[in-house]
Amino acid sequence: MKNNIDYSLYLVTDRDVLMDTDIYTEVEQAIKGGVTLVQIREKSIGTLEFYNIAVKIKCITDKYKVPLIINDRIDIAQAIDADGVHLGQNDMPADIARCILGSNKIIGVSTSTLVEAQKAERQGADYVGVGAMFPTTTKDDASAVTINCLKEIKQGISIPVVAIGGISEINIALLKTANIDGIAVVSAILGNKDVKTAAEKLEGLFRN
User: Catalytic residue among 8, 110, 168, 187, which?
Assistant: First the structure.
């Protein structure tokens, strides 16, 4: 699976943006709408709660054969046998994570400059997330990245590039010129009453 990952519509979870429903229902609806990869991001809960949530979401992603990535927590990824982890600039280095997880797991790294992206590639990352591309309320510590910088990163590394940060139906066209491999979204899918339709629209806009 690792060599055939489709990064085109990458869902990052955030229960705070849900509209009167639960994360499990919405993740399944998002996958039905075209989400190709799911990352569980939980910054403010304990290990047991994170583990329990991850176990339930993995049952859903396994059902649809969609890869599941865990944000930051290598221990949770190992405990549930997730497909991989996503690491920030202040998390464990990608090469150390690779030693722990082995060669078959997916490792992604958040980057905002070409230097960071090239370092991630050297350390064995499978893809980089680049952002924040646009203003976002779900991650207030992300550095702003220009479209030109995104293009520079895409041209300067050989691993897949996924844009993240405030991406919506309105601005997605601005990213097309960078020839990126995917978009990572939170609110643009989970912040809608009809998650499935929201995912379908974003997938169509990105692919066409």
Answer: 110
